[in-house]
Write a structure and sequence with these properties.
Blueprint: E1 4-8, H1 13-24, E2 28-33, H2 41-50, E3 55-58, H3 64-73, E4 79-82, H4 89-94, H5 96-116, E5 121-127, H6 151-169, E6 174-180, E7 182-184, H7 203-211, E8 218-221, E9 233-234, E10 236-238, H8 239-255, E11 262-267, E12 273-274, H9 275-286, E13 292-295, H10 310-315, H11 324-337
Parallel strand pairs: 1-2, 1-4, 2-3, 4-5, 5-6, 6-11, 7-10, 8-13
Antiparallel strand pairs: 9-12
The structure holds nicotinamide-adenine-dinucleotide (NAD) and uridine-diphosphate-N-acetylglucosamine.
The site of nicotinamide-adenine-dinucleotide (NAD) has 26 residues, from helix 1, helix 5 and strand 5.
């Protein structure tokens, strides 16, 4: 019998890529999502890639009753990967209650039901946003976490704290938080990728939409940072390398004894690329000239952020294999497939 894993937010961007990775590694995958930021067609697309149609349930995980009957039904699962959350930084500033209610209630409901049903392995999607403006680069997991500037970011910081408190008393649950840096790119099939609704906030989908003619011009936020070319630096990571990190974390949870109840890992490449580096890689791999101009810095942006992921490399035996060119190429192929 296959090991069963529950993927919340499983039809979303990172959840769908992780579902593919788990199915291809022999797991039985159950996707649960309320489809507030994703489409049901993703389930068939996952089947097209893997040859296996994952089970899917449309449930709002803030609904206590429905969540609890879902978990009762799937109590034979070996673990949960919790992607479900609202994630738009700007919107969270306008709708803090909605963001705290959604993201934190999902977490509370999932953890409680895991304990009740003795499902032991939990992986949480955290973010490098918990580091705020870093004092030292690259950032290790020991670096101080700071109050994130947005309510969205704060749901990640508070979420981590809730997990830490919970596993101390939990009899059954062990947990890992993965602090993602900047996930971009898409599956090589061109069948799944990031599909932002409305105007994208993030760099990569904005670039591909400009190239596709959906938006007119990319504004590069800031050209006077103290960096090699004046533009801000981030640690971009291919979404498939990120998916593999979840597999490595899952193995770690299965391997560790009761003494290691909660661990945190940075998940990045360790390489910082500037906005202009990303544009130039995109122009090369897509053979497109990108229309862009410079604008003021965006409020709340840090000049530089990149990971020290040596803990993940040592403990999870995980590393990245895909380059910035792989990321920009696959993002463009995905955008083209949407035409
Ligand atoms: P996404 O929006 O594509 O996926 C999240 C999924 O959760 C969506 O399909 C949405 O419909 C679902 N969802 C939201 N509220 C729900 C609810 N109440 N009940 C059931 N389902 C619900 O986002 P993503 O980019 O795949 O991100 C996945 C996770 O990773 C999120 O927790 C996000 O905060 C975190 N994260 C993302 C990034 C990034 O750059 N994409 C960076 C750091 C952390
Ligand atoms: C943003 C969020 C962060 C979240 C992450 C992943 C903010 C302040 N931070 O991180 O909380 O975890 O997304 O969802 O929103 N850029 C441009 N022009 C654009 C868009 C972006 O120049 O139109 C630049 C930004 O200034 C930044 C880089 O590109 O230097 C990457 O931006 P983005 O993709 O939005 O990610 P972050 O700001 O790192």
């Amino acid at each position: 019998m296959k090991n069963k894993v529950i993927i919340t937010g499983g039809t979303g961007y990172i959840g769908s890529h992780t579902a593919v990775e788990f199915i291809q590694n022999g797991f039985e995958v159950v996707l649960v999502d309320n489809l507030s930021n994703s489409d049901i067609s993703i389930v068939d697309r996952i089947e097209k890639i893997t040859g296996i149609k994952p089970e899917f349930e449309e449930i709002d995980l803030t609904d206590i009753k429905k969540t609890s009957s879902f978990f009762k039904k799937h109590k034979d699962a070996k673990g949960v990967i919790n992607f479900a959350a609202l994630k738009a930084v700007g919107e969270s500033v306008q709708k803090p209650i909605e963001y705290y209610r959604n993201n934190l209630n999902i977490l509370l409901n999932v953890l409680e039901n895991m304990e009740v049903n003795s499902i032991s392995n939990f992986i949480f999607s955290s973010s490098a946003t918990v580091y705020g403006l870093p004092d030292k680069l690259p950032i290790t997991e020991e670096s101080e976490t700071k109050r994130p500037t947005s309510p969205y970011g704060n749901t990640k910081k508070v979420g981590e704290e809730i997990i830490e408190d919970f596993v101390k008393i939990a009899k059954n649950v062990k947990a890992i938080s993965l602090r993602y840096f900047n996930p971009i790119g898409a599956h090589k099939s061109g069948l799944i990728g990031e599909a932002p609704t409305g105007i994208p906030n993030n760099l990569m989908p904005y670039i591909t939409q400009v190239a596709a003619g959906v938006r007119k011009e990319l504004k590069v936020f800031g050209k006077d940072y103290d960096t090699k070319d004046g533009t801000a630096i981030r640690d971009y990571i291919h979404v498939m390398d990120l998916a593999v990190a979840h597999m490595a974390a899952f193995k770690r949870l299965n391997d560790t004894g009761k003494d290691q109840k909660y661990e945190i890992f940075n998940i990045g490449t360790g390489i910082g690329y500037s906005v202009l580096d990303v544009i130039s890689s995109f122009e090369k791999t897509s053979k497109q000239k990108l229309n862009y101009s410079f604008d003021d810095r965006r409020e709340g942006d840090v000049p530089m952020l990149y990971a020290d992921s040596s803990k993940a490399s040592k403990v999870l035996h995980w590393g990245t294999s895909l380059s910035l060119d792989d990321m920009t190429r696959s993002s463009w192929e995905w955008e083209e497939s949407l035409k």
